[in-house]
Amino acid sequence: MSKGLFRKKSIEQLVAATRGEKTLRRDLGAFDLTMLGIGAIIGTGIFVLTGTGAVTAGPGLVISFVIAGLACLFAALAYAEFASTVPVSGSVYTFTYATMGELLAFIIGWDLILEYMLAASAVSAGWSGYFVSFLNGLGIHIPLELTAAPGALKDQSTYFNLPAFVILMGITLLLYFGIRESKRINNIMVVVKIIVILLFIIVAVKYVKPAHWTPFLPFGFSGVFGAAALVFFAFIGFDAVSSAAEETKNPARDLPRGIIFSLVICTLLYVIVSGIMTGIVPFMDFEGISHPVSLVLQVAGQNWVAGIVDIGAILGMTTVMLVMLYGQTRIMFAMSRDGLVPKVLSKVHPKYKTPYINTLFFGTLSALMGGLIPLDELASLVNIGTLSAFILISVAVIVMRKTQPNLPRAFRCPGVPYIPILAIISCAVLILNLNSQTFIRFIIWLVIGLVVYFLYSRKNSLLNHDHEK
């Protein structure tokens, strides 16, 4: 039995699967992948979590972003090696299948549902808040009952978050019609939101008062690490770039560039923006503020920029949802092609070359979750799911270097095993800073996944069928 649980797919089998009928269109270059990464990373983190992080760490929030960014960078180097060597959809799920076997691969694929689908639903709620605020500024008012999930507002009765549902269904249709159309819209939105962030930096930097940076670490390093575990959510998504491996024109060259460039650019922007914000507004004033960037502009007396920032926030969160939902569908596509989830989820549209049934199913499910479920308490599940994936990909690089040392590698993670070990340690430290409720929910989710695996996936696996032959 144990041999069956840890059966592996060879690199040759993985690559051969991309040449069959269930193949996706290759249409992405290094620029597109970098835009995909930035689209996933810059959104809720810069427009919402900077305020919450400042309350937790004070001006030392800049260090929190550096810590979280380094944890991601260590893992990113491991992702880059795998994605360029094994250019197949599925991200860490596929890489784990090749190195540590089917059971762990299924677990991490199940785990990634927390990262991608739940993150898309959670971000849709933040998007809805900014969008409703923007419409109110134009004199357009949506009934309050349709602006939040049931129970989301303590003092008001709400029934459905209509804007959250509509935006996710719109993104679902966009992904249904193809990656070419999706990348064009994503690239445009990413360029606009970067311009908005640069405008904020240029306008706000002259209002910084260094006195607000004292004390720099009001809660010590415990506050810094606590904020790092929180703002790690701001970096979630760069790994979705690796899920685009099968749709990349030159994966050996472009995937490492897209993964690393997007992460470095976003970390730099996070550090600069958080430094400016805590230099203009005393960190304790961000308590309970859901629009921290707008608060900074008000204090600086630059209200004219606030409307532009709202547009940037709306576009920023839109690209995050697009990339998250994209990553979710590609993970499920890979798992379905391997027989671990129903085969209908890997059915490719004859014209658009997209996993269209998969896209419609998970897109609609995400939209319903965004409309009906308050996800504040579940957001930390996204973090623990992602950190677990980063640990596994780091272990996988070490394993593959030992088991297949002569495998041609277009990009080699430097400093193996030390860099992957640093990734494992840093991610483990961030996990330990999450609360106990998060661990309980995560364990429940994994138990459900194991039930699915043993009742369905194990016997329907293509590797199981090959073994029976």
Question: How would you describe what is shown here?
Answer:
InterPro entries: AA/rel_permease1, AA_transporter. Keywords: Membrane, Transmembrane, Transmembrane helix, Transport. Its main location: membrane. With 469 residues, this protein is an all-alpha fold. It has one domain: Amino acid/polyamine transporter I, CATH 1.20.1740.10. It contains 18 helices and no strands. Helix 3 crosses helix 13 and helix 8 packs across helix 13. The longest helix is centred in the N-terminal third of the chain and has 36 residues. The chain is globular.
Outline of the structure:
This is Amino acid permease. By secondary structure, this protein is an all-alpha fold. The protein has 18 helices and no strands.
How much is the average pLDDT?
86
CATH architecture: Up-down Bundle
**How many domains in all?**
1
What string, H for helix and E for strand, traces the elements in order? HHHHHHHHHHHHHHHHHH
Q: Gyration radius, to the nearest Å?
A: 22 Å
Q: Helix fraction?
A: 55-70%
- Indicate the CATH class: Mainly Alpha
Distance between the termini: 17 Å
Shape: globular
Strand content: under 5%
Oligomeric state of this protein: single chain
Secondary-structure-derived class: mainly alpha
